[in-house]
Every structure is written in structure tokens, then in C-alpha cells.
Specification:
Elements: H1 10-14, H2 18-47, H3 53-79, H4 84-104, H5 109-126, H6 129-134
Helix pairs in contact: 2-3, 2-5, 3-4, 4-5
Amino acid sequence: MNAEGKRPTEAATTAPVWPSILLAMVLGVEALVMAWVTVLLFVEFLTQDALSVASSIALIVMAGLATVLLIALTVGVCLGQRWVRGLTAVWQALQVAAAVTVIRGDMMPALGWALAAASLVGLLLVFHPAVAARLK
């Protein structure tokens, strides 16, 4: 019996845990990379001349907020919070859009393919039946 006095469903008790662990690992790696990007942006802001100081500060703040979001998503997946699924799916979809932009642009295509692979793995894991059962 759970706290609500109901018996757990059969799917929730027999679902494998590895997809949730793998999703937490993917989100954790993304959080570390985003933190690294935030630090690089801050160092570049301090060492290089900025065309727009306000835009540079805004970009650093947004990168920091994305880092905090990814850390919160990682912790949420580890704790089995239900709000994590939607935000994780949105983040992964935005990351696919960024990957397509990097691949089609004149930037580093290898980075774009790495972003695409990580986000597609994340999307597959978010919609995996075991993760869906655990995060309901």
C-alpha cells in the first residue's frame, strides 16, 4: 500500500529501473556541458571586447539558468518527480533544433551530431514505458 492507501499497479512494480538511471545520466552530462559553456562564456566576456555588453550578460545569465534547469531535471528524475517528463521532452526538442542549426550552418558539424545524438537518446528515454511508469 502506498501513502494514498492504494495498491501499486503491476506495471509500476515490475518496470525496469535502468532507463530512468540512463536518463538521469544523460541529463547529468548535459548539465555538466552546459555549466562548462556558461564558464566559457563568462571567461570570454571578461577577456574579450564585447560588441554588446548587455547581450553578453544576458547570454551568460540564460546559460546559467539552463544549467540550473538541467541540474533540477537530473535531480527530479533521480527522485521520480512527475513534472520532469514534460520539461525534459521540451529541452530535448530544443536541443534537436540547436543541433540541426549547428549541422546545417558553418559551425562544427561533429558538435551538432553529438547534440543530436544526446537529445534523441534523451527523447527516447523520456517516452520509454518504464520511465513513464516511474514518473507518473
